Amino acid sequence: MTALPAPLDVPQLLGDTTRVLVTGGAGFIGGAVVRRLLRESTATVFNLDKLGYASDLASIKQLLHTLAGGDPGARHRLLQVDLVDEAATAEAVRAADPDLVLHLAAESHVDRSIDGPGAFIASNVTGTFNLLQAVRAHWQSLPAERQARFRFHHISTDEVFGSLGPTGRFSETTPYDPRSPYSASKAASDHLVNAWHHTYGLPVVLTNCSNNYGPWQFPEKLIPVVILKAAAGEAIPLYGDGANVRDWLYVEDHVDALLLAATQGQLGHSYCVGGHGERSNKEVVQAICTVLDERLPAGAPHARLITPVRDRPGHDRRYAIDPSRISTELGWQPRHAVAEGLAATVGWYLGNLDWCQGVRERAGYGGERIGTRR
């Protein structure tokens, strides 16, 4: 895999941008963005998060303890706000007074959207609408110099494009065809962002990413579920025949893409971000078991724990992304092969079992199957 010639120069990318608002900054991907900004720039980061069941600030607090010089904590400002609250959202945007907004806040677990779609419509559709209105008012009030450099970056998913057959890949011209309550709510938010650009001139950039994985992901998604189940000697659930394919993207590679798109992307354009990591769910589960056999040989072979379960309702068969536009225009390439990223992720979870137990207990989630309603 072609590597980036050098790590991103985050201060150079940000330029005169000194105030960054990250929504969903206590989530998995948002937290990775916040940590990168705190670690590699001098920008003040306003972290707007409702602190829902999957939110956690441990990774950010851990980083702040390690940063030297001055008062790094002063550069991280938590704004505990639910975007569904219109007035609170507007006040948070006024308080942050941002030059750049990265909008990652969203309900994102497909299984939960099957059980409770209303929360996804409220957060992802109404919440995005409220944020767009607040940001538009802020942008229009800025002096000309700041208005000219202001950007709103909306982060979305490849799931809005529906399901692929055995060949082909999603690109920026793929028609929308969402199949789950989650993907439908994200598709709606994408359309709202594009409408605010075309109608009001709001300077926006969009990205649609493939499945992310890596450290600090709330343990309800496939990869952390498999790691924790296998490490505990419990049955590993595999939906259906396990042949559903996803394009796996290591979270730090995604952060590279987000910072490039947010600062260098063409306004009004969207960029598809994929990790060149197509694997079936069965292949991913087996690869994790192989790593665990090396790390925890007493439990080997862990693949004996793989247990087929009833498939998810409406389970999309295959996702794959063509990232040519972001690679050609912005020079982005993923820096982690799937095997490398999975090994690092397995190691991280095995070293942070206490954190996993704590966040699951706080969320009232014990690792059980959800999203089986029809």
Topology of helices and strands:
Blueprint: H1 10-14, E1 19-23, H2 28-40, E2 44-49, H3 58-66, E3 76-80, H4 86-96, E4 100-103, H5 110-115, H6 117-141, H7 144-149, E5 151-157, H8 181-200, E6 204-209, E7 212-213, H9 222-231, E8 236-239, E9 245-247, E10 249-250, H10 251-264, E11 270-273, E12 278-280, H11 281-295, E13 306-309, H12 324-330, H13 338-350, H14 353-363
Parallel strand pairs: 1-2, 1-4, 2-3, 4-5, 5-6, 6-11, 7-10, 8-13
Antiparallel strand pairs: 9-12
Provide a compact summary of the structure:
With 374 residues, the chain is an alpha/beta fold.
Describe the structure.
This protein is 44% helix and 15% strand. Mean pLDDT is 93; it is low at 1-5. The chain is built from 14 helices and 13 strands. α11 crosses α13. The strands form four sheets. The protein has a seven-stranded parallel sheet, with helices on both faces.
Q: Supply the CATH superfamily name of one domain.
A: NAD(P)-binding Rossmann-like Domain
Enumerate how many helices there are, as a single number.
14
- What is the CATH topology descriptor of one domain? Rossmann fold
Strand order of the largest sheet: 3-2-1-4-5-6-11
Sketch the major β-sheet: 7 strands, parallel
**Gyration radius, in Å:** 20 Å
Distance between the termini: 41 Å
CATH class of one domain: Alpha Beta
Low-confidence stretches: 1-5
